[in-house]
Amino acid sequence: METLSWFQIIAAMAGRFLPVWLALVVTFGLSISFRRRLGLYGKLFDSPVGMVGFGIVMFWVFTAIFANWIITMDPLAQFSGSKNAVPGSALRAPVDGGYTHLLLGADHVARDVFSRMVMGSRVVLQIAPAATVFAFMVGITLGLPAGYFGGKLDTGLSFLANLVLAFPVILLFYLLVTPEIVQTGIPMWFAAVLFVFPIIFFVILFNSRFFTNPARRNLYVGVVLVLGLWAYSGLAFNLDPLGVWSMDPNLLNVFVSVVFVNAPGTFRIVRGMVMDIKTRDYVAAGQTRGEGPWYIMLWEILPNARGPLIVDFCLRIGYTTILLGTLGFFGLGVSPESPDWGSTIDDGRKLLSIVPHPALAPALALMSLVLGLNLLADGLREESLKD
Amino acid sequence: MLLFILRRLGVMFLTAFALTFIVFSLTNLQPNLEKLAKSEASVRMTDDQVVSWIANNGYDTPMLSRYAQWLGVLPGWVKTMEDGEVRGRCIAKGADPAAAPRYCGLVQGDWGSSTVFKKPVSEVLGRSLGQTGWLMLTVMLVMVPTALMLGVLSGMREGSRTDRVLSTFAIVTTATPEYVSGVIFIALFASATAGLSPLLADWGWISGKTLFMGTATSAMDDITFWNFALPVMTIALYGIGYIARMTRASMTEVMTAQYIRTARLKGVGFTQVVLKHALRNALIAPFTVIMLQFPWLLNGVVIVETLFNYKGFGWTLVQAATNNDIEMLLGCSVVAVFVVLVTQLISDVGYVFLNPRIRLA
């Protein structure tokens, strides 16, 4: 069995990504034909930059979804004799019916680089968007009243936000994401505080809108409380009676730290936008009609701030991806076996000047995902400014 | 103005107190102290020995009082061991306990001693900050002019081909974190098996094996282009994109202003308009951005110094954090917080000087 040439490697990789290509074609086909009825999402397909960004992001999303079909080897398996093998080299002892080549070579303990890169996308895309959503929930729930009421509340919350922002991110990670901290149970308390915000947000959201119609209000708030507290008990305290919601303590630690670092940034943006929007006439009109402050904040100010918030959301997922990579790069939080991109870069960098490919593959993957998110944000900004 | 600065200084000290206290309490958690005991004395200690080590070294006193001792507002702890030896916070090993000062903390100018480096924190910090200072200075010298030039060039004629190319470049660099660009740079320029170096060595253009050096350890004594260019480029690249985009936004805004049109209509040449009328006003906004980049540079410095094995501030921080070196970490966080807050203050004050339309309350 001989080593594949670069052309063969690229062709083989493109073939492995077949499910992704099909899914991309379907997504783009449907979206472009119905784009006039899809609001801001549809308008995205008028901007080439946005389309490219969306394409790259969806490529990685579909890769994460179909990862089981794309990988050629078990990402944790070690293949004897293939230590630091160059891209395209053949396996010494291929399994019958299994894949015969290491498409992107092997790393320093002879694991397949290609499969690890593909599986890594799953780790990153599971944590980054979810962590960003939580950070947004915290930022919005605190930023709205801080901007709207101002005064002491604003001063206090802004001081706290600036405190977190003044912390060097890496020092914070080194202090928060260690096995010792997991022992003390601090991440659990962090989670207990941070995970309560989504529940508060949705309760206030429905209550302020439907409190004149108690039947519907009770239904919505009840559903939120049941679902929310169920997930809350499982995620934060690992006490879910049914065992559906649970989180590995190390993963919880990483997740909570990333949310904690991101929330103050969102808080500042939301607060600034609320301070701007609350001077508008329609807010004054709402106040004269006797609408409650939370109704004005959540149903009048927030929808009008959505454009910049969506753009910031995309950028922030990218930033969170970079943060997760940083954590992996310093070997914090995740298990050493984990195929996430940051850890694989860290693994590969020790032999970087002799065998660069194990570090290069995840590095380029991470870079392309963040680039896609930045381009997507740019496209969205361009299109949302056109209204 | 004076009131504003005083108030900001007050907030700054409050923030610094809060942050150092958080660092102090996190590093003084019981599991962290046990880890420290095991790494300092012996890994195979029994639980009882760990407890007695913690007590003998004064870590069993209440945390608040120890924080106050570190600050220097409470006298340092003193203890008499069973064998009659007197140990204390302010008593150096083997020194006469009677001659030791009662207070030794930040207020007295004593930063404590590092358990990893076995040296006073101030000495380690001073040396590593010196190293990082050179790195930062070079980064600034490369980053700021490049970024401003790129931003001005692309914002000068919005939508032109130059603008498109430069904007794409800026977006790509903001999407490349330091640990990615560092890896790519080393693979391209400093690898004996991949990238440019093997080609150049084949052609006989370079005498060594690689074009650039993959580590910057030698730059600590003697900075040369070949050992310093890659770390500097790695840090600078990430910032360039961001500053360039801000400059571009500010430049495009200025170029649509009335006075630029007036100047053009009077018949002033395009170059003159850009250099004399637009540039000055367009550079106000990037000034803030550049100042606010400092905290982010700190991040980049930690990554790059680890990647290139350059023993500066970032490297020290990582060493201190992995070994739970309490006083070293506190020293590092004081420095980091100081850098962040001072640059924020400078950016606010400088903004007022640059833009006379803004008044501070």
UniProtKB/TrEMBL annotation, chain A:
<comment type="similarity">
    <text>Belongs to the binding-protein-dependent transport system permease family.</text>
</comment>
<feature type="transmembrane region" description="Helical">
    <location>
        <begin position="219"/>
        <end position="239"/>
    </location>
</feature>
<dbReference type="GO" id="GO:0055085">
    <property type="term" value="P:transmembrane transport"/>
</dbReference>
<dbReference type="Pfam" id="PF00528">
    <property type="entry name" value="BPD_transp_1"/>
</dbReference>
<feature type="transmembrane region" description="Helical">
    <location>
        <begin position="354"/>
        <end position="377"/>
    </location>
</feature>
<feature type="transmembrane region" description="Helical">
    <location>
        <begin position="123"/>
        <end position="144"/>
    </location>
</feature>
<keyword id="KW-0813">Transport</keyword>
<keyword id="KW-0472">Membrane</keyword>
<keyword id="KW-0812">Transmembrane</keyword>
<keyword id="KW-1003">Cell membrane</keyword>
<feature type="transmembrane region" description="Helical">
    <location>
        <begin position="6"/>
        <end position="30"/>
    </location>
</feature>
<feature type="transmembrane region" description="Helical">
    <location>
        <begin position="156"/>
        <end position="176"/>
    </location>
</feature>
<dbReference type="GO" id="GO:0005886">
    <property type="term" value="C:plasma membrane"/>
</dbReference>
<feature type="transmembrane region" description="Helical">
    <location>
        <begin position="188"/>
        <end position="207"/>
    </location>
</feature>
<dbReference type="InterPro" id="IPR000515">
    <property type="entry name" value="MetI-like"/>
</dbReference>
<feature type="transmembrane region" description="Helical">
    <location>
        <begin position="313"/>
        <end position="334"/>
    </location>
</feature>
<feature type="transmembrane region" description="Helical">
    <location>
        <begin position="51"/>
        <end position="71"/>
    </location>
</feature>
<dbReference type="InterPro" id="IPR050366">
    <property type="entry name" value="BP-dependent_transpt_permease"/>
</dbReference>
<dbReference type="InterPro" id="IPR035906">
    <property type="entry name" value="MetI-like_sf"/>
</dbReference>
<keyword id="KW-1133">Transmembrane helix</keyword>
<feature type="domain" description="ABC transmembrane type-1">
    <location>
        <begin position="121"/>
        <end position="377"/>
    </location>
</feature>
<feature type="transmembrane region" description="Helical">
    <location>
        <begin position="251"/>
        <end position="270"/>
    </location>
</feature>
TrEMBL record, chain B:
<feature type="transmembrane region" description="Helical">
    <location>
        <begin position="328"/>
        <end position="354"/>
    </location>
</feature>
<feature type="transmembrane region" description="Helical">
    <location>
        <begin position="223"/>
        <end position="244"/>
    </location>
</feature>
<dbReference type="Pfam" id="PF00528">
    <property type="entry name" value="BPD_transp_1"/>
</dbReference>
<feature type="transmembrane region" description="Helical">
    <location>
        <begin position="165"/>
        <end position="190"/>
    </location>
</feature>
<keyword id="KW-0472">Membrane</keyword>
<keyword id="KW-0813">Transport</keyword>
<feature type="domain" description="ABC transmembrane type-1">
    <location>
        <begin position="129"/>
        <end position="347"/>
    </location>
</feature>
<dbReference type="InterPro" id="IPR035906">
    <property type="entry name" value="MetI-like_sf"/>
</dbReference>
<dbReference type="InterPro" id="IPR000515">
    <property type="entry name" value="MetI-like"/>
</dbReference>
<comment type="similarity">
    <text>Belongs to the binding-protein-dependent transport system permease family.</text>
</comment>
<protein>
    <submittedName>
        <fullName>ABC transporter permease</fullName>
    </submittedName>
</protein>
<keyword id="KW-1003">Cell membrane</keyword>
<keyword id="KW-1133">Transmembrane helix</keyword>
<dbReference type="GO" id="GO:0055085">
    <property type="term" value="P:transmembrane transport"/>
</dbReference>
<feature type="transmembrane region" description="Helical">
    <location>
        <begin position="134"/>
        <end position="153"/>
    </location>
</feature>
<dbReference type="GO" id="GO:0005886">
    <property type="term" value="C:plasma membrane"/>
</dbReference>
<feature type="transmembrane region" description="Helical">
    <location>
        <begin position="283"/>
        <end position="308"/>
    </location>
</feature>
<keyword id="KW-0812">Transmembrane</keyword>
